[in-house]
């Protein structure tokens, strides 16, 4: 998948849609006015950008996510590891663990994930 980068305000906007799942563009305008203090034109500008980026779809005044929040967050994590650790998850974990000790619970959860992946 092509890299997708959202500015902080775009992410906040997308979170409104992610929470709702589907929302009319009119309700989205009202929610953005209330939560983000945006004018209608700002809402539609950001909506257009997120549609162009492939995050949202606006069809017949119904806005729906094309990517879930979890998919977007996973994509961002993959892009971060690719860029900063040459795609190496072990290098990322080594860097993370060099500054922060994992709890027994975290270790067990990681081991469970590895075991499930391996089967």
What is this structure's SSE topology?
Elements: H1 8-20, E1 23-24, H2 25-36, H3 40-52, E2 56-59, E3 62-65, H4 69-85, H5 89-99, H6 104-118
Helix pairs in contact: 1-2
CATH top-level class of the largest domain: Mainly Alpha
Distance between the termini: 26 Å
CATH topology of the largest domain: Arc Repressor Mutant, subunit A
Count of alpha/pi helices:
6
Task: Please count the beta strands (DSSP E, at least 2 residues each).
Answer: 3
Number of domains: 2
Low-pLDDT windows of residues: none
Radius of gyration: 18 Å
State the strand order across the main sheet. 1-3-2
Proportion of beta-strand residues: 5-15%
Morphology call: elongated
> What is the element string, with H for helices and E for strands?
HEHHEEHHH
Polypeptide structure, described:
- β2 (56-59) and β3 form a beta hairpin.
- Strands 1-3-2 form a three-stranded antiparallel beta sheet.
- It has six helices and three strands, in the order αβααββααα.
- The chain is elongated and about 50 Å long.
- The protein has 119 residues and is mainly alpha-helical.
- The chain starts with 7 loop residues before the first helix and ends with a helix.
- The protein folds into two domains: 8-69, Arc Repressor Mutant, subunit A (Orthogonal Bundle); 88-119, no CATH class.
- It has helices at 8-20, 25-36, 40-52, 69-85, 89-99, 104-118; strands at residues 23-24, 56-59, 62-65.
